[in-house]
Write a structure and sequence with these properties.
The complex is a heterotrimer of chains A (about 160), B (about 100) and C (about 575). Chain A has about 160 residues and is an all-alpha fold. Chain A is about 70% helix and about 0% strand. Chain A is globular, with a radius of gyration of 21 Å. Chain C is built from 24 helices and two strands. Classes of the chains: A mainly alpha (about 160), B mainly alpha (about 100), C mainly alpha (about 575).
Chain lengths: ~160, ~100, ~575
Amino acid sequence: MERVEYGLLLAGAIICAYRAIVSKRILSSTIYLACISALISVVLFMLGATQVAVMELSVGAGLVTVLLVYALSVVGEDALDPSSVISKPLAIAVVAVVTLLLGWMIYPATQFENLMGSVDLASVLWQQRVLDVWIQIVLIFSGVMGVLGLLSERTPGKAEGGHS
Amino acid sequence: MKLTEINIILIGIVSLLGVGFYGLLITRNLIKVVMVLQILVKAVVLAFVFSGKVSGNLGLGQSIAATVIVADTIVAVVGLALAVQVRRRFGTLDAPEISTLRG
Amino acid sequence: MANILILLIIGFPWLGALIVWLIGDARPKTQHTLAVAFSLLSGISSLILLAFINSQPAIDLSLGTSFGNLTFTPDGLAVSLTVIATVVGSLAVLFSVDYMRGEAQLGRYYFMVLFFIGAMAGLVLSGNLLFTFFFWEITALCSYGLISFYNDDPKAVAGGIKALIITQVGGVGLLAGALISYANLGSFQISELLGRADTIPTAALSFIAFSFLIAAAAKSAQFPFHTWLPDAMEAPTPISALIHAATMVNAGIYLLARFYPAFESVPGWKTAVILVGVTSALITAFMALTATDLKRALAYSTVSQLGYMVYAIGAGGVLASQFHLFSHAVFKALLFLTAGSVIHAVGTRDMRRMGGLGAKMPFARNVFIIGALALAGIPIFNGFWSKELILEVGLEHSPMWAYALMLLGAGLTAFYTFRMTWMVFFGTPRETLHIHPIGLAMKISLAVLSIGTFTTWLLFGGLNGILSTSLPFHEIEAESTLEMIKAVSFAPATWFALLVVTLGLGLFFAFGRKFALSESPAWLSTLTESSFGFEPVNRFVVSLVSNGAEKLRATQTGQLNWNILAIVGALLVVLAALVWGGAL
């Protein structure tokens, strides 16, 4: 029975997500985020998606956490997270309705048996969806530009030329 | 509705999405916005793999999930870079406050 | 070999774009030199590519079975347009050396121009509809960026926005057609669409055909989208010559020519194409009659000549339309660049203030007259042969009324061309304008183009050869230049056309010189100023988009949380609608 494991892992992830959001200290939010990543990657692993699980663990729990901590160390932590613009009851009400409807919509779509034989990730990615790989390369390039922006010490004083 | 594995995971994904939406609604700090986006995307990654699993084509689900992870990491990087530059220029990370400033 | 050449043709300008941009505006000399060098390299590569014409893809990169392959096919249609884009492109860049000397932000200018040249080559060479769309949008972006190049001038910005919005209508048409075709064929390959068009259900095929017609009309500024091109004349003149006369506006013609075999059998499609062509050609010929702005008059004549090409495709004359496209690209680039040198020299675009410039600028006068004679369809010049071919095809394969109207258009063309030439270069000077001399780079590019205007029609046999051998779906007969000359010289269509052209010229010399300077009749100017009633329609679309966006701004408080609430709220509405719809 894997039900219990799934239940516990997902419940843990949801609790971590909630804690990450309501936590007043951003650094602890970062730790919670890493925990979510770890829990989710275990779920992915149990679902059989091993490669993505590894990616999620290394990128989600590793790289992104490092980036967040670095960004926090650069800007200094604003410990105070002021109260939200939107009243919390309104936010909760909207989100609850959306979530329920979403679940209601998706539920029937998942209630059928496996029909097709699975194809492994490598062949899908490298044979069927090569365009995705290209797009990822372009994205990574823009990510590099982003890192440069993150690292640049220059204070952007004057705007660069008149793109008015 | 029996509490099968499929249903448990479904509930998990939808609740994670819900928490993420809630977080986006109440968060003001730009760096935290980036983090909440990460939470939402984790739910989405799980949903892709899960739908691949239930429809029997796990490879396709994984392929799209991998693309989403890459895209999302880049979003995080660019978002953080923006946040850092905003902080340098305006001295604050509070989204409502920034929107009333004039650069 | 062909694959390397294609990569070079697209790669040189794009690489050059990056380098010129990164060099920075502090070193304008280097920027000029590099831009010329990279565009020339691309032009030379495309000329070499002429030796490697093939109907099979030269580059075939797998994008996975879900998308079809990224292919680049050097067939006759693609390569002839690539040569036009890169060669005219390099001449325009060469011209810019003088024209843009001392302007600020050269990096942005050259980046856009070079980026455009590469994208235009990619657009015609691409064998994958998805990438055709990709390159198509890049050309639209560059066109917008260059029209609005002088971004402190509200007219330039408005013209750019107008062009962007209206060509986007075309982009949406292309994308919609491509997606429908993908849904039916499971592939974005152009060859698949051409080869298996008959397997697509009729309704879907007509949807694709008419979507592509909309795309082509918007891109080529054809009726009812013909109003963006005149406003695009706020761009620097080399850009008007390159993008808005010789290359980008041809993308629509290319699209129609490329997919003609697939859509030929769609009921009503050919008639619709003929209708679009005839209407555009005539309306804008009338508008050119009353225009007083030199560049606008040329823009109207561009739309009018593009109308001839569209008409030719509707009549089944893909070859004739491509031949005219080729001639037109050369002589219209010549006219625009000469106009640019005149405008640069005297500092105004208003033809009413010019006059008598011929004596002071003999070089500009001579090359402008060469271009004008070609535009008017006077024998020997390239415009004559190609226009006669179109009219000949029209006489044989199109309805009589369409042919008669196009013939009328030929007469009008002769009339307005001579009016334009006369207003600028002849008569007595109406104002004393200070004249700057024309630079050497300008003279070189003008000389090359005017030699081309004399001679490019001799290349008919070559063009015909590459088109007839490398387009398996088009069924174009091989014909040599000599046979074409014989056929055209003895065809009755030619004599009709010459008669009408002479009539137009006669009318001009009888009444036109007074007409040129006096106010044109009120009814005619009212009609033409409102683009025969379509300017308001277009303006409405543009103002709808920009005012709508302006009104929507009220909802964009810039408050992140409220925006998210709106997004989640919209999701809620969509979900509720879906659940409700599912429950019904």
